[in-house]
Design brief:
By secondary structure, the protein is α+β, with helices and mostly antiparallel strands. About 30% of the residues lie in helices and about 15% in strands.
């Protein structure tokens, strides 16, 4: 199962362009956001960045900064540059799962083993789809090695052999990639197709995003992809070799290896804010969205994050706790989104109809990463006026 179809960017985009003022944004706050990003690039915090801001089905801002790659020579970031989304990919995969559940192929209350019987190995037989997608499944540190990425028969064996680390449902503990490799195998079990093809056929192509959002990057699109970087101890950055390989880009890790533009992610969240439609295409119904974008874990602390994350079935929510990673302290309680490790965050706010995507290409650890995400998001939240 290694057939990934390339689709070029659409000539027209489903979010027509509008200006900040007409969509109800305080320009001075957006100017502060842009100045912050430009300062970050000047300070060599990251080589490049892309942002997109949308509201009520229109694109208010789409801008690229800096470089997509630095070696062997700098390559300027452009509007069609594809950014590694890391765990923002989880939301793309989740949308496909919502659509498949709507079609009756599985229920979130089903056990994974109901559809992948061998998954019952190592006392995992009672783990549900809901526990898996909300990071309560009990195998957060399980790893899928490179050898299984392209061989999906081997991938299924590896996933089924995951060892249990805690009683399912007893904790919320972020599963970096393990839960979504499992969900990828679930997709294949209920559809009989490669999960990468299912995501393309179910989500990205119907939304008109087939040329701007990929889970499993075709080699024909590699020239558009950023190179990821990691910080140097004395400042600056260097390419992050493990995430720039052919194998990684093609793998389509359903929890970590999506590639896309910021405006594609802003559009995906506009679909959710519009009740499941974008550009006339309906992906899911409003009731499905209400179920999926709901706080399923309450104020329980995510033991990996060290704070309540208010997990939905894909995105997490702001809630009313003191703060929450990535969405910004100023966010309304119903705002929802997800991030990518050390690099990015994308979110939607049902109270205002605003969606926002911020993606970069240097994987910076905390505490700086979380502090800058809060500042970036709060510039946007404080820019929102009634509209």
């Amino acid at each position: 199962m290694d057939t990934i179809t390339a689709t070029r960017p659409a000539k027209s985009f489903h979010l027509p362009q509008a200006d900040l003022d007409s969509l109800g944004f305080r320009k001075e706050q957006i100017d502060r956001l842009i100045a912050l990003i430009e300062r970050h690039i000047a300070e060599k915090r990251y080589p490049g960045c892309q942002i997109a801001l949308a509201r009520h089905g229109k694109l208010a801002l789409f801008r690229s900064f800096g470089n997509a790659a630095t070696e062997p020579r700098p390559r300027t970031a452009a509007d069609d540059t594809l950014w590694l989304l890391y765990s923002n990919t989880k939301v793309v995969t989740a949308v496909a799962l919502w659509a498949l559940a709507e079609r009756g192929l599985f229920s979130f209350s089903d056990r994974i083993a109901d559809h992948v019987p061998a998954f019952a190995k190592h006392a995992k037989g009672d783990i549900t789809v809901l526990q898996t997608i909300t990071h309560q499944a009990g195998f957060p540190n399980a790893v899928v090695g490179k050898a299984a990425w392209a061989d999906h028969d081997r991938l299924r064996e590896v996933v089924c052999d995951f060892p249990l680390e805690f009683t399912p449902g007893s904790k919320v503990h972020y599963h970096g990639q393990s839960a979504h490799w499992t969900l990828g195998m679930l997709i294949e079990a209920v559809t009989g197709k490669d999960f990468r093809d299912v995501i393309r056929e179910t989500v990205t192509e119907p939304l008109g995003l087939g040329g701007e959002l990929f889970v499993g990057l075709p080699e024909a699109e590699f020239g558009r992809a950023v190179d990821m970087h990691e910080p140097l101890a004395d400042g600056g950055y260097r390419p992050l070799a493990d995430n720039n390989t052919v194998e990684w880009r093609k793998s389509g890790s359903p929890g970590a290896a999506g590639y896309g533009t910021a405006r594609a992610m802003a559009a995906l969240y506009q679909m959710m804010l519009a009740g499941g439609t974008l550009g006339g295409a309906r992906i899911v119904g409003p009731r499905t969205l209400q179920y999926a974008i709901r706080n399923h874990t309450g104020d329980r602390v995510d033991e990996f994050m060290g704070m309540p994350m208010h997990r939905g079935l894909g995105p997490h929510l702001r809630g009313t706790t003191a703060n929450v990673r990535g969405l910004g302290a100023f966010a309304s309680p119903g705002a929802f989104g997800h991030g990518g490790v050390g690099t990015s965050y994308c979110w939607g706010d049902p109270e205002s109809g605003v969606s926002f995507a911020y993606v970069t290409n240097n994987r910076i650890p905390d505490p700086w990463h979380s502090k800058r995400l809060d500042l970036v998001a709060n510039f946007v939240h404080s820019a929102i006026l009634p509209a």
